[in-house]
């Protein structure tokens, strides 16, 4: 793997499979009475969040702590950033504190790349979501979830998403999750279709490794997994569709549409949900919806990313057994 994780497009197929397989090993910790490994003892991971977050921030914190790393949570609110401190000065402060890895979420697309290439810090940089650009660990946890449900040969096999048909529906224009998923799923051999109103399809999408459709009903019957995206009203400064009711009617997933999906197909959502808009309560609470499972899988994926970026070059569980035998 490379030194940083900034974009899903930076991952080769071997990189992606290594992360997924490592996460599969680490997921077994959930069955242990003590869910902790000593592999990153003495390392410091900083969660540097300039945007509000619940799932991602807590997930990275849990992942680092389960690997025995020291964790510093930095929120822009209540810090010197609110007084005008620049990203550079914040980074230099973290470097002075000895950060081995910085997990950054920022409202500006490109901020993690700037941090990783500036020379301001020597540690690894992990993109936890930047503007409307990318969210690579979300794509990894989504692929991990799909692999567990859709593999005909069981988890841990690198080819099990090849040829699978994945449909991503909704506000693609503002979605960093959609961008990262398209790149990663294409790398893993899946066939991705984006479904959205024309107003919510980004400029230049023709160059993405995916198909485009404006008709959810035309593709719902032949998909292996459908991922519903939240309509991000906080990023909208204009009317992108007539009404919420009209959006839900054409692009929302309800019980009738779910019934037309193949029997094995799953429903995914990165959260948070707008129940009643892109997804109904009936679908969100059904056995086919993996939203809660995705949150749990996020901890395993982020453990794998931190472990591999901070020097892990063998099985994390094997390393734990070696430590215990001393």
TrEMBL record:
Protein name per the record: Aspartate carbamoyltransferase
Highest rank taxon of the organism: Bacteria
Binding site for L-aspartate: 83, 176, 230
Keyword terms, alphabetized: Pyrimidine biosynthesis, Transferase
UniProt record similarity statement: Belongs to the aspartate/ornithine carbamoyltransferase superfamily. ATCase family.
Organism (species): Streptomyces demainii
Subunit structure: Heterododecamer (2C3:3R2) of six catalytic PyrB chains organized as two trimers (C3), and six regulatory PyrI chains organized as three dimers (R2).
Pfam family, one: OTCace
Catalytic activity: carbamoyl phosphate + L-aspartate = N-carbamoyl-L-aspartate + phosphate + H(+)
Enzyme Commission number(s) of this protein: 2.1.3.2
Residues of the Aspartate/ornithine carbamoyltransferase Asp/Orn-binding domain: 163-309
Domain Aspartate/ornithine carbamoyltransferase carbamoyl-P binding: 3-147
Known function: Catalyzes the condensation of carbamoyl phosphate and aspartate to form carbamoyl aspartate and inorganic phosphate, the committed step in the de novo pyrimidine nucleotide biosynthesis pathway.
Binding-site residues for carbamoyl phosphate, renumbered to this chain: 55-56, 105, 135, 138, 271-272
Pathway(s) served: Pyrimidine metabolism; UMP biosynthesis via de novo pathway; (S)-dihydroorotate from bicarbonate: step 2/3
Lineage, uppermost ranks: Bacteria, Bacillati, Actinomycetota, Actinomycetes, Kitasatosporales
GO molecular function terms noted in the UniProt entry: aspartate carbamoyltransferase activity
